[in-house]
TrEMBL record:
Zn(2+) binds at residues 129, 156, 159. CDD domains: Anticodon_Ia_Met (cd07957), MetRS_core (cd00814). Belongs to the class-I aminoacyl-tRNA synthetase family. Keywords: Aminoacyl-tRNA synthetase, ATP-binding, Cytoplasm, Ligase, Nucleotide-binding, Protein biosynthesis. This is Methionine--tRNA ligase. It is found in: Cytoplasm. It catalyses: tRNA(Met) + L-methionine + ATP = L-methionyl-tRNA(Met) + AMP + diphosphate. Its main location: cytoplasm.
Amino acid sequence: MADKPSFYITTPIYYVNAAPHLGTAYCTMLCDVQARYRRAAGYDVKFLTGMDEHGQKVEEAGASHGMKPQEWCDSQEPLFKDLWKQIEISNDDFIRTTQQRQYKAVQYLWERMKESGYLYKGSYDGWYCVPEETYFTENQVRKSDEANETVGQHLCPDCGRPLERVQEESYFFKLSAFQDKLLKFYDEHPDFVQPAFRMNEVRSFVEGGLQDLSVSRTSFDWGIPVPFDGKHVTYVWFDALLNYMTAVGYGDDSDEAKAELARRWPAQYHVVGKDIIRFHCVIWPAMLMAIGEALPSHVFAHGFLTVRNSETGKAEKMSKSRGNAIAPQDVIDLLGVEGYRYYFMTDVTHGEDSAISFERMEQVYNADLANSWGNLVSRALNMSAKYFDGKTPELDEGWEQRDNPLRAIALGIEGRYAKCMDSLDYVGAKDVVMELVHAANHYIEDSAPWAVAKDPARAGELRDIIVNLLESIRICAHLLAPIMPETSVEVLRRMSLEEEAATDDLAGVCEWGQLKGGVDVTKGDALFPRLASQKK
Ligand code: ME8
């Protein structure tokens, strides 16, 4: 592995206050597709996900179920792990902030922070949002003026829920000292925050001035203790952000851990939702600057999945607390796992908020998977089996050099596909692959192999048509594999390309001319049976 470049990608670690839903799964899937793509593109990938277990919110969730926090977190772990397995998430590691490695790393961080001179003891007097685990100053809070039970309450400016007043002794991180350093860093690394328009939000937030951050708590104890002051536990975000380094060896002084850290850090991508962009693009970089560690290359912030409120007609963020979250199982029941992955990865523009609906899922599934990709595979494999005695045609000398409309498209695909995939633009990557899929379906209509097959004098022509179709399918299967891995393996297997399917190596797959001739073709069941409309 050592000769391959490292590619380290992370999801947020999710709070264990409720079961994972479509939104959590969406972010995890974005990372999974990138991890699979990078493995196939020759990187030594580490893909990390996990659970954020400390803090008030998790403690309260446990208490509401009559459980101690640790017991509660342990009970939630299978919900995450089982869902990730079910939707084909290929993470290499799963971190929990209650693990010993995180405890050690966080305590090590405290010592480094103390040495850095960016830590001081004081007292915090202000507002706190438990659902967001975030501090707010008097100026930031929203006062309720609505004629309902929240009148006169102080509300969270982000989520609108009531805030708690907190007064406690606390350690502070001198975030205010990092304003200029952060702005300089953004100037020097304009692609640090992606998509680009999110960088403007981050920059104007920092330009507006930074307040020191309370990073320990004394009014509550579900957290990692501060090593030099037993009364304090670590603020949940100060703990959580470090998970990205813990998982690659930070705070462990064994030689293996040091080598791993040197090889893996900094990460290439932290993929997060837009709600936690400030933590990742402002606080985390400042923490790393304070302790003299390198900053990650990119933070990719995706938008929210929204659903239409049937009463107001407005799109609203899908969340448990609004009671509008769709369970992943409902989508799996409708589309199957790979249809589910295809829809979320190729129909949802990754930087923006996206309204999702079952109607749209059905449309996309039927148009792209049932009628286009699935139909192409089924027609081409059936014709090969029918006209060539259950096999792919025997290939003649120089077949790969002969011009035809599909070869012309395939030759131009690889670079465009890679450009999209490299920047997490899976919608763009899908469009590129679908050009070849659609062209192949048109080619079937234009070349009418069923008519050609009737004339023995046109046997060579028939062979070429089928070969061109199968070769296009081979290429598309590889390019779609990061999104629908099982389907691609199945398609390649049906053309007796098991070895190729197993290597998941993208290098050179778009080169025209790698089909195997005269090998078994399996017709198999429809990959994506068409859905009859069943509006939900
Ligand atoms: O914030 N649409 O955890 P969290 C799309 N523990 N994505 C959504 C979504 C929606 N409607 N709802 C949630 C935390 N997400 C911290 C992170 S990291 C060091 C600590 C996704 O359980 C999105 O990626 O609240 C969002 O950023 C994440 O879940 C928040 O998960």
